[in-house]
Amino acid sequence: MKAQTIIEQRLQKARTILLLDHPFFGSLLFRLKGRESRAIKTMATDGISIYYNPDFVETLNAATLCGTLAHEVLHPALHHHVRRSGRDPKRWNEACDYAINPLLLDAGLHLPERVLVEDRFRGMSAEQIYNQLQTEAEQEPGDSDKGGDSGGNGTGDSGEISAPVTEGGIGQVLDAPVGDDGTPSVEEQAREWSVAVNQAATLAKQAGKVPAGIGRALEGAAEATVDWRELLRRLWSETTPADYSWMRPNRRHIWAGLYLPGVFREGVGEVAVAVDCSGSVNSRQLRLFEAELRSILEGQRPERVYVLYFDAVVQNVEIFEAGQGVSLNPVGGGGTEFRPCFDWLEEHGIVPQTLVFLTDLYGSFPDSEPSYPVLWASTGGRRAPFGEVVPIQAA
User: Fold this and answer.
1) What is the pLDDT of residues 32-50, one digit of tens each?
2) Angle between helical axes of 62-77 and 89-106 (0-180°, round to 10)
3) 128 and 254: one domain?
4) Is residue 180 part of a domain?
5) Which of 219, 252, 272 corresponds to the end of one domain?
6) Do 237 and 256 share a domain, yes or no?
7) Is the pTM for the entire model greater than 0.85?
8) In terms of residue numbers, what domain contains 211?
9) pLDDT in tens, 133-192
10) What percent helix, strand, coil does the chain show, rounded to 5?
11) Confidence of residue 307 (pLDDT cuts 50, 70, 90)
């Protein structure tokens, strides 16, 4: 009991230090209830509680304990506990750690040795990092992609974590708890954390202690809640010629007695799809993109679809006429150059209604923007000099 009291005192002191020196993290930390659990090796959070193994806490000095607590609270602050969406728990936890640890170190906090930090992941969202880790794992022989229970994690009445807990990094992010015991819905929990984060950011700004890079990370968390499929459909729809007709009234307003002209599309001309074959797109992402692409094309009814497979050059081109089902069969595997795709279209006198790339955006861009819209369905974290970027996430 005495040892337990000492641990609790150390945790309370660390909370107070964070509130004074790092108010953004410190104020958020008071949203999490401390609960002892020896079922985990280090710490874990589900957005409601912070679970800690007292043996692990004893190994940390005061500065590192503060950093570790800040690490835990940043997970729900960035909605990591509600963003897993069926991904492998172990790899998701690692991706989340890679995403937040640089932010903590940049803020001047101390973390335990051997934490997950790599400069190549700096500025990337957890989803983008996960995709990269998934791609690398699939390229390794013998990888079985097994990391734990995909159904999430739970806690028992005793406070012990009852479901298998995955490892990775210094702490674990668990799925937001759901149940009929008065726990708010996942959507409500996410909204509550959004409000708390805004309040914490305001408090930190007033104190002149806003963590470096936290603003961009919060923006990335907000973007990650937008399904890439819907974003791709919306952006593609905006590039499609449309007109209005009283013959097809807008059904959304008929119930209110309002008869407004509806939007109709008679189909588009030619569209082009460029698939990066340099190895940056894994098979899972390719199949997801292919299914969504086919669905969009069925609704848009293009006259012709050109599919360009490229790396440093255009390796192959497949042409699908109206009504044909589009399938993607990549060939290639060298470096990445985007210019050859634009050159190929120009050489063949093709001005597509839309050009969509499936890529990680690691490559050389042309010097000038084309006259037609370009959408970049990206599996990576880079930006494009023109066009609209749609972050693709593997489910």
Assistant:
1) 888 888 888 888 888 888 8
2) 120
3) no
4) yes
5) 219
6) yes
7) no
8) 2-219
9) 877 776 665 544 443 333 344 444 344 444 334 344 577 888 888 765 667 777 778 777
10) 40, 15, 45
11) very high
Residues 211, 374: Cα–Cα separation, whole Å: 35
Q: Across the chain, where does the E strand assignment appear?
A: 33-36, 43-45, 49-52, 171-173, 243-249, 261-264, 270-276, 304-310, 314-321, 355-359, 374-378, 388-391
**Which is nearest to 69 in space by CA: 106, 100, 93, 39?**
100
Find out whether 192 and 184 touch, Cβ atoms under 8 Å. Answer: yes
**What six digits make up the tokens of 95?**
């991706």
How long a stretch of residues is the chain? 395
Radius of gyration of the chain (CA): 24
Token pair for 167: 């490892």
Distance between CA 67 and CA 63 in Å, rounded? 6
b/e sequence 40-63, b meaning 16+ C-beta within 10 Å: bebbbbbbbbbbbbbebbeebeee
> pLDDT tens digit string along 216-257?
555 555 555 545 566 666 666 666 554 444 454 545 445 455
Tokens of 15: 């909370």
Cα–Cα dist 323/302, whole Å = 9
What integer pLDDT is reported at residue 268 of this predicted model?
Answer: 60
Q: What is the tally of structural domains in the chain?
A: 2
Q: What is the residue-wise DSSP string for 307-361?
A: EEEESSSEEEEEEEETTPPP-------S--BSHHHHHHHHHTT---S-EEEEE-S
**Residue 105: strand, helix, or coil:** helix
Based on the fold, state whether residues 281 and 342 are members of the same structural domain. yes
